[in-house]
From TrEMBL:
Keywords: Cell membrane, Glycoprotein, GPI-anchor, Lipoprotein, Membrane, Proteoglycan, Signal. It is found in: Cell membrane. SUPFAM superfamilies: FAS1 domain. Residues 24-166 form the FAS1 domain. GO terms for cellular component: plasma membrane; side of membrane. It comes from the Eukaryota. This is Fasciclin-like arabinogalactan protein 8. Gene3D superfamilies: FAS1 domain. InterPro entries: FAS1_dom_sf, FAS1_domain, Plant_FLA. It is a lipid-anchor; GPI-anchor. It comes from Herrania umbratica. Its main location: membrane.
Length: 216
């Protein structure tokens, strides 16, 4: 009987090998070689953003030096830091060359924050603008935001899987400091859905109670 399982085991083993080689980069291991980004690296692990970065094939990390991180970490709880750092992970590959060749000099790019389902409008997008004199600036894509961060240097590129570049200051989108954490958001949604189902089961005579539940 055991023999029958052999081809299946071999198949699964091959599949897992493919999975390992398809996602070859490990952001934690890469940044371990750069003590300047040790705080950023530690927060990628604490917030589990490192796992999300490693599971994606085409990605750009905008890293912040320990000095630039201190302003963030001193003031904000981990959930807010997670939201902010996920805005620094671009779902596209930008090496220094591509940054300086942006068509029409400006573009909006999607970030990991957009994938949390927690980012209304342009909140999960970053504006990259090639300013005159070769300076490349970054800011929130929300209209009227300042382009307060700029490209400082290249850290590491593995074309076209992962690019790591340093920027001068954190990108802060309006509203991101007060946005709820993704898990809390889905919990609220789950509660509302449960209450909706209960309301439908018990019928309209309970609609008054349902209103009270939703408000509470
Ligand atoms: C980039 O990713 C592709 C697809 O996941 C993989 O096949 C390739 O080996 C990776 N390249 C490098 C240099 O790691
Ligand atoms: C990534 O690298 C870190 C540090 O070297 C290590 O602790 C971790 O296990 C690695 N993760 C994976 C998925 O290999
Ligand atoms: C990026 O921001 C600048 C400055 O606010 C703005 O002029 C530009 O139109 C924005 N780019 C895009 C693609 O929206």
């Amino acid at each position: 009987m055991m023999g029958a399982f052999y081809p299946l085991n071999l198949f699964l083993f091959t599949l897992s090998l493919v999975a390992i080689t398809a996602h070859a980069h490990n952001i934690t291991a890469i940044l371990d070689g750069f003590p300047d980004y040790s705080v950023y690296n530690s927060f990628l692990s604490q917030t589990k953003l490192a796992d999300e970065i490693n599971s994606r094939e085409t990605i750009t990390c905008l890293v912040l030096s320990n000095g630039a991180m201190s302003a963030l970490t001193a003031k904000h709880p981990l959930t807010v830091i997670k939201n902010i750092l996920s805005l620094h992970v671009l779902l596209d590959y930008y090496d220094p060359q591509k940054l300086h060749q942006i068509s029409k000099g400006t573009t909006l790019t999607t970030t990991l924050y957009q994938t949390t389902g927690n980012a209304p409008g342009n909140l999960g997008f970053v504006n990259i603008t090639d300013l005159q004199g070769g300076k490349v600036a970054f800011g929130s894509a929300i209209p009227g935001s300042k382009l307060d961060s700029s490209y400082t240097k290249s850290v590491k590129q593995i074309p076209y899987n992962i690019s790591i570049i340093e920027i001068s200051a954190p990108i802060i989108a309006p509203g991101i400091l007060t946005a709820p954490a993704p898990s809390h958001c889905s919990e609220v949604l789950r509660n509302i859905m449960l209450k909706t189902v209960l309301c439908e089961i018990f019928g309209h005579e309970f609609s008054g109670i349902y209103q009270v539940f939703v408000v509470s």
